[in-house]
Amino acid sequence: MLNDYPQVVTIAGSDSDGSAGMQADLLTFFAKKVYGATIITACVAGNSFGIHAGVNMDADFISQEFKDLADDFHIRAAKTGMLADADIINTVADNYEKYNFGPLVVDPVIITKHGDMLLEQAAYETLVQRLIPLAEVLTPNFFEAVKLSGLDPELHDFQEKAAYKLQEMGARNVMVKGRHDQKEQETVTDYVLLENGQSFKMTEPYYETTHKNGTGDTLSAAITAELGLGKSVETAIRSAKKYVDACIKNGINVGHQFGPINHWASN
């Protein structure tokens, strides 16, 4: 039957070293056995030492990508990654509302897992106003949850309180990822709040390694793939978490400094 194979799309930037961005998303889609399409929003030049140059796609080009996919494919789930400015975020939101691309997983690329801000204030505010209310699943890292919720990270049950705040902002299901910056850290705990009010935690060993580039991209891509396969949100999140942990634990020796995770680890 035409278009019966599960198809998903990543709406994100291209990372030339392949460790993150849509390259990590496509590797994840391949591993999860879904067909992955792309809507490129930016291109960056970099390697394991860092990012050294970047260019953004213009709004008309991004809109044309949406139209071309909608005209030909049956996209069953979508995800966003790095959306560099307010114009791009508005363009993505407008087109997602226009076309039926299934549930949206929003990886709010606002702050790095080390706490460094990635978006200017105007773009941040646009993401909050336009994109988060479209999210079937929102996957902020710990510092992004702090920024979005406005809560003190030292609060008891911070992740739970932050997740409720993010639901109030419009996201239907929220996964607040755990910290990765503690001394002598042994575990990482993620907190998930579902649309129906149920919640759960996932605690796994912390793996000390310099090869963790693209973990957030990979997690959100794995959730997207599972949703594209028709899985429930809870099943998709649990499966994605297990996949990412395997990719980190069973590393791959690529790059001199901060390298990628191993997307083939669980196969």
UniProtKB/TrEMBL annotation:
EC numbers:
2.7.1.49, 2.7.4.7
**Is Cytoplasm one of the keywords UniProt gives this record?**
no
Gene Ontology cellular component list: cytosol
Gene Ontology molecular functions: ATP binding; hydroxymethylpyrimidine kinase activity; phosphomethylpyrimidine kinase activity
Name of the top EC class for this enzyme: transferase
Q: Which reaction does it catalyse?
A: 4-amino-5-hydroxymethyl-2-methylpyrimidine + ATP = 4-amino-2-methyl-5-(phosphooxymethyl)pyrimidine + ADP + H(+); 4-amino-2-methyl-5-(phosphooxymethyl)pyrimidine + ATP = 4-amino-2-methyl-5-(diphosphooxymethyl)pyrimidine + ADP
Please state what the protein is called: Hydroxymethylpyrimidine/phosphomethylpyrimidine kinase
Query: Would I find Cytoplasm among this entry's keywords?
Result: no
What are the BP-aspect GO terms?
thiamine biosynthetic process
What InterPro entries does the record tag this protein with? HMP/HMP-P_kinase_dom, PM/HMP-P_kinase-1, Ribokinase-like
Could you list this entry's UniProt keywords, alphabetically sorted: ATP-binding, Kinase, Nucleotide-binding, Thiamine biosynthesis, Transferase
Q: In which pathway does it act?
A: Cofactor biosynthesis; thiamine diphosphate biosynthesis; 4-amino-2-methyl-5-diphosphomethylpyrimidine from 5-amino-1-(5-phospho-D-ribosyl)imidazole: step 3/3; Cofactor biosynthesis; thiamine diphosphate biosynthesis; 4-amino-2-methyl-5-diphosphomethylpyrimidine from 5-amino-1-(5-phospho-D-ribosyl)imidazole: step 2/3
Q: Domain Pyridoxamine kinase/Phosphomethylpyrimidine kinase, which positions?
A: 15-262
Q: Which organism is it from?
A: Fructilactobacillus cliffordii
Using the record for this protein, list the coiled-coil segments as residue ranges, or answer none: none
- Family designation: Belongs to the ThiD family.
